[in-house]
Amino acid sequence: MENFKDLAESALDYAQSNGKYCDYAEVRLESNISDTISFFNGKMHLGNLPIDLTKDAFSRKIGINVRLLVNGGMGMATTNNLNRESIHNAVDHAYKTAKRSSKQRKAPIQMSEEKSYEISWQSNYDINPIEVSLEEKIEFIENFLKIFTEKKHPVEFIHIFVLITEQRDIYYINSDSAKISSTVPRVAFLPIIIGIQPGGKNEQSMSTFATTAGWNELISWNLMEKVREKVNILGKIITEAKKPPEGEIDIILGPKVAGIISHENCGHPHESDRILGREGAQAGESYLREHEIGFRIGNECVNIYEDPTIPGSYGFYLYDDEGVKAHRRELIKNGIFNEMLLNRETASVFNTHSNAAARAVAYDREPIIRMANTYFAPGDYSFEEMIEDVKLGIYMKSFTEWNIDDKRLQSKYVGQEAYLIENGEIKNLVLKPGLEISSLGLFGSIDAQGNKDSLEWEGAFCGKSEPGQGCPVWTGGPNVRLRNVKLA
Amino acid sequence: MNQKKFEILTDKMELAKKHLKQFCDSWVIKGIIKSENQIRFSENNIDISKNWDDIKLILFLSKKRRTTEISISNLSPNVIENTINYCEKLLNVAKINRYYKRLPEGPFNYNSSIQDKIFDNKVANLDEKAIDLVENATEASLSQGAKRVAGSFFFGNSHYFLETSTNIEQNFKKTHLNFRIRAFAEDMYATGEALSCSTHLKKGFDAVGAGEEAGKICKMAVGGKKGKPGIYNIIIYPKISTELQAPTPAIAMNEYIRKMGLSWLIGKRLGDKIASEKISAWDDGTIEYGLGSSPFDDECVPTKKTLLIDKGIIHQYFTNTSLARKNQESTGNAGITMPQPSNTVFAAGDHTLEELMEISEKPTLLVTSTWYTRYQSYAPPGILSSLPKDGMFLVKNKGKILEPVRELRINSNHYHMLEHTIGLGKKLKQVSTWLSPTSNPVFAPFMLIEDIKMTTGTK
């Protein structure tokens, strides 16, 4: 990495010399090392994955990304052929296509004015997961396989365990004099378990335990118990769960469900590139396109925040991929549309400053607006207080199938571990309760958020853009109560 | 091809080979030189033009039946050496891969005509003409009633070089065009999407036609009302097959995925019926102008056309050399650890779209696109839901009236959709869509599927 910093700087110089005039230029030199070890039904798998997390099981990448704004047109070129000639070719290509694109645009792209930083940062971690020995990683996964042999389960299981360790190093410079170096190691552990009753019902669970705080942090989470509990509950759901209630009921969403809702129903529609239409043919637009800041989205108690700076979080960063310093964003405050996620391009459109939402997942991807760690802010309620006056309802602790339309209005969440609540008491498991509800209907039905004791996080890979960028994030929240809703 | 890049790649492949030979029983080196471009546009403006200029090595390594794969884009000699040394350590602690037997020996006879059908010099030299295509498609869409459009145009060329420890050396080059456009009416919820893709500029590629189609759909979708939940027949556009129908032949019929227990066909045997007799499907790595076509796979085995579903009956799974069943050959679909689909091709029927609307005897929805297909479980029967994204229409008077409807969600499973396909369009369209479950290109017709549950939000 160090050997190529000169090349990155020469690219930036070259972009601003030899008769070229750029409104803005940036160069991102980036190295990614990634190792993925998997076990499918107890068999080690060291190849690419059938699930779309990452195509390459093991990869060693380095390359340079040049992004230029010329006469209001944007061009980007990348290369991993790291010599002066290739780098200059990349700059020339980006310059030429930016200039040609500018002629087609009715309004020029502009970048917001931002403070420039010269700084190095890294996530605070104990042991870099990429440096943990292969033997230790293999042993870590093999321990989980014992869960399936240690007792007789009422159903059969298909199980996949995936351990992804990686390190991303970036040297970022731009024409505003920013010069930022960063290092972030990440680790994610994904148990995927399908319980099957031969010839009958089945139930699937996917979890993501993920952090930037290092290997020991992951180990400290007592994952064995969590996975064992998941296996046991899948068996119970298949053999014991009963039909969910009909008619109007109350629903208490567990932290996992609240987390995915904060991400899908709030985080995505608050992305300003969607609001402005830039993702119109990819991840979609946003119902907020028709509304201004100050629009009421939900009840007074609803607060959803976005914070890249949470130590150890999977979406952790201190400066985004446009060199802007990160901070907490308050997307929905007291039920009101309070803030969008912005990069420098969209901030300029709204005549404001970026709130550091520009992220790219590798050197060969453009930085676009992404979430980091999105969550329902905790309220005041204990779990007991939340259920005590629920006459008829369900407690949806986790979810399986979910989806949402491309404007982020019509959503569906099918409960996995879910319980009947009757007269303030948790009763039997219920089978696949489906909540099919609009974002406004959902946020307008919330009357209570659990206290900080119930706040939990889940790792995820957020998909967006084209070519796709699976971006590491956390989603989170406490328990959240909905009143008077119907199951689908 | 740039001679310098070729020399760099050759040099790196030689270096990798030198290190691999020191400890591997068998190995494959795949070298790729790629120049790819994308123009992204929205609000009738080009947002960004991108170019990727990459040289990459993908290695398959085996030692005592332990196997791994690694991708190297960091071409520093010491990184290549260190990475391969790391792989040796990895293989030393790895478990035996029971699904790996050997690499094929060859020699093979390759179909030399495929090369001409997957590489077009006009695409390799498209350059700034690509922007003209985007502008023309945009104009076409606006002229049909769109107020604004967004989309993406990928084009580029790649050169692949393969060398195996069984002394096979081959190479091929390939071009691709993939254009997608989404049109929006004044009413932001009235949208239409269309796409066009090919390997050749003049063979099945029509960006302007896609623009017109997207514009027409969005105009027809204006004024759509919330649809009534219930059971409908649905007629799906070819691109929806990447979400709803192609996952079975392209994912569930991958022999490796079947062995892993991740196929919703688990429990089914060759000869079992899984679909209506209207459904036949192939994996075809040889189809002309197919984005997934190539002369050979990652083991250098010639690609072929493999019947997977024969009139509703499971005929065969696609596979590589190691996973091929007794008395069977590889279907030419390596991935060496895990087979990969090439082009998934459905049989065409004998109806026009208008005829499909006429023959449907129950309340019918014409669905032009879906997205966000998610599974409750990959286990049988593959329960899922998928969201219609663009224009969706209630078919009235046998298709003479198309009434736009919104906010309905498809709830079904793969067994049901395959078994209840009762009509097919007469033309196949090549489709390759964004973030769908099927990542490979699909050739599909319009399909009429019976008795699909449509739901909507309760609040």
Gist of the model:
Chain A is of the alpha+beta class.
Question: Which features would summarize this protein structure in a list?
Answer:
heterodimer; A: about 500 residues; alpha+beta; PmbA/TldD fold; 3 domains; 9-stranded mixed sheet; 6-stranded mixed sheet; about 35% strand; B: about 450 residues; 2 domains; 10-stranded mixed sheet; 6-stranded antiparallel sheet; 11 helices; 22 strands; globular
Please describe what this structure looks like.
With 488 residues, chain A is α+β, with helices and mostly antiparallel strands. Chain A has three domains: 2-33 and 55-118, 2-Layer Sandwich (PmbA/TldD fold), CATH 3.30.2290.10; 126-170 and 183-238, no CATH class; 248-486, no CATH class. Chain A is built from ten helices and 26 strands. Chain A has helices at residues 5-15, 84-104, 134-145, 215-219, 223-240, 255-267, 272-275, 344-349, 383-387, 439-443, and strands at residues 24-40, 43-45, 58-70, 73-79, 118-122, 156-174, 179-196, 202-206, 209-211, 248-253, 304-306, 329-333, 336-337, 358-359, 368-369, 373-376, 392-396, 399-404, 410-415, 418-422, 425-429, 434-438, 446-449, 456-464, 469-477, 480-486. In chain A, the strands form five sheets. In chain A, strands 1, 2, 3, 4, 5, 6, 7, 8 and 9 form a nine-stranded mixed beta sheet that branches. In chain A, strand 6 and strand 7 (179-196) form a beta hairpin. The radius of gyration of chain A is 24 Å and the shape is globular. Chain B has 459 residues and is α+β, with helices and mostly antiparallel strands. Chain B has two domains: 3-142 and 154-174, 2-Layer Sandwich (PmbA/TldD fold), CATH 3.30.2290.10; 225-455, no CATH class. Chain B has eleven helices and 22 strands. Chain B has helices at residues 3-20, 77-93, 113-118, 121-124, 129-143, 207-220, 241-244, 247-252, 255-260, 353-359, 414-419, and strands at residues 26-42, 45-63, 66-72, 148-164, 169-184, 191-198, 225-226, 230-236, 281-284, 305-310, 313-314, 344-346, 364-367, 370-375, 383-388, 392-396, 401-406, 409-413, 421-424, 429-431, 442-444, 447-455. In chain B, strands 7, 8, 13, 14, 15, 16, 17, 18, 19 and 22 form a ten-stranded mixed beta sheet that branches. Chain B is globular. The mean pLDDT of chain B is 96. Chains A and B meet through strand 2, strand 3, strand 4, helix 2 and helix 3 of A and helix 1, strand 1, strand 2, strand 3 and helix 2 of B.
